[in-house]
Write the structure tokens for this entry.
Amino acid sequence: MNNKENKQFRVQKSKEEWQQQLSPDQYAVLREAATERPFTGKYNMHFENGVYRCAGCGTALFDSDSKFDSHCGWPSFDKEIQKGTIVEKLDRSHNMIRMEILCGTCGGHLGHVFNDGPTATGLRYCVNSLSLDFEPDEKN
């Protein structure tokens, strides 16, 4: 996603500011819509209790209660932590039609959402670990 498309997002930074804040791999995912290789992300098989936040701006995106093992190679969730936290955008890249998911605060690319989830929501938010930070529950 280029910076011209994120004018509606509350957190605005220049390309240089994002590059200073994020690792090169995080920048590629969050700001250029790259995808990490499946089964390589640190949160793929991570099941601690807590909150998954946007690695770009810190916005709470997903609660650990919504995480499940989808066997797809990326962290998967069945719902966002609060309605409006995630923004959807039609993605026609790579000769496919998918729904891209972005952080509703900074516009960072998170992954995609699919209508094949196994829970009552029917959704599978397929998210790059590089786009996430994890905040464990204080009880852990």
Summary: The radius of gyration is 14 Å.
